[in-house]
Design a protein that fits this description.
The chain has one helix and 30 strands. With 332 residues, it is mainly β. The chain has one domain (2-330): Pectate Lyase C-like (3 Solenoid), CATH 2.160.20. The chain has a 30-stranded parallel β-sheet that branches. The chain is globular and about 60 Å long.
């Protein structure tokens, strides 16, 4: 086992740096290692071409793996992490030089007892695959905890078969809005794909997405306050929402909620299931300007809940086929 003394940390950085020194050289590989800390500090810093595989990261702080300089071709796979503030942290050492992460792959990774986030990817990061990554939150999370985070201008990133469980804030007042999401992206993100992903047990959104041209396919959200929370534009195909619930704070639960002033989505073949005593609305609209929503071939069984609840601007909804020809069972 490698404890993170100065020698271990420096040797890891040196090996990573070697990977980016020569395009002709074979990429450096870190394999079969265990990096263990005292609950603070980083594990190692990535560099272009580095492969990290079959390793463990235990009891570390903000960045078991940190991307602090522009990095291309990073591969991280077959990893176990536990007791971490963040697993992958993307923060530049030099504010004038954004640490964009490009052409990267994160796959077959399990994280347990995550306090803040499994991954945070930002700047102009692009062309990434995050696949078969499972994140389970700690019982004592930090504020604004989120399983998977995109920020700044990150674009063209695919999540495939990723899971975020239990990202629930603790310690806030009952009058506060409780954050805590499974997956989040922001307004400057573009072309983000969520394929067969799962989010459960968040105190805010399972999927809290503000990006443009987002696409979700075969995703599942269960037991989050708002299972799917949308602010931008995109398509949602064959996604399933089950029994949203509030764990505290202001704001009411919903299966699908729409916000902001530009929401425009196609919701194709949504599947909704809720117990008879769950009165969370299927579609909640709290928009500054009318949302434009097309709902196709819905399969909804939520007998105790309203189909629609409008708390601000009236939405423009197209039903394909007509609402009465879709498989919808609600309280109204």
């Amino acid at each position: 086992m490698d404890y993170l003394d100065r020698r271990t940390f420096v040797s890891a950085i040196a090996l990573a740096t070697f990977a980016g020194c020569s395009r002709a050289a074979e990429a450096a590989t870190i394999e079969g290692r265990t990096f263990q800390g005292d609950g603070s500090g980083e594990g190692l810093r990535a560099q272009s071409g580095l492969i990290i595989r079959n390793s463990k990261f235990l009891n570390l702080g903000n960045g078991a793996i940190r991307v602090n300089v522009p990095t291309d071709g990073l591969v991280v796979e077959q990893i176990e992490g536990r007791d971490l503030y963040r697993f992958l942290e993307n923060t530049a050492s030099n504010r004038s030089s954004p640490a964009s992460l490009t052409n990267f792959k994160l796959r077959q990774i399990k994280g347990e007892d995550i306090r803040r986030a499994m991954t945070r990817i930002r700047y102009g990061s692009r062309n990434g695959l995050i696949e078969d990554v499972i994140a389970r939150a700690s019982a004592e999370t930090e504020r604004y905890c989120t399983g998977f985070v995109l920020d700044d201008e990150a674009q063209a990133i695919i999540y495939r078969r990723c899971e975020a469980h239990g990202f629930a804030e603790t310690g806030r007042s009952s009058s506060d809005y409780w954050n805590g999401d499974g997956f989040s992206d922001e307004r400057s993100n573009r072309n983000i794909r969520y394929l067969s992903c799962v989010a459960t047990g968040s105190t805010d959104g399972g999927f809290d997405l503000k990006s443009a041209d987002v696409r979700l396919v075969n995703c599942v959200a269960k037991g989050n306050k708002r299972n799917f929370r949308f602010w931008g534009t995109g398509e949602v195909e064959n996604c399933r929402s089950e029994d949203p619930r509030s764990r505290g704070g202001s704001g009411k639960p919903a299966h699908f909620s729409f916000h902001g002033g530009t929401a425009k989505y196609i919701i194709d073949r949504p599947v909704v299931r809720a117990a008879s005593d769950n009165d969370a609305p299927v579609f909640l609209f709290d928009n500054d300007a009318p949302a434009n929503i097309e709902i196709r071939n819905a399969d909804i069984d939520a007998p105790g809940a309203p189909l629609l609840r409008v708390e601000n601007s009236e939405p423009n909804i197209s039903w394909v086929p007509a609402r009465e020809d879709q498989n919808i069972k609600t309280a109204d």
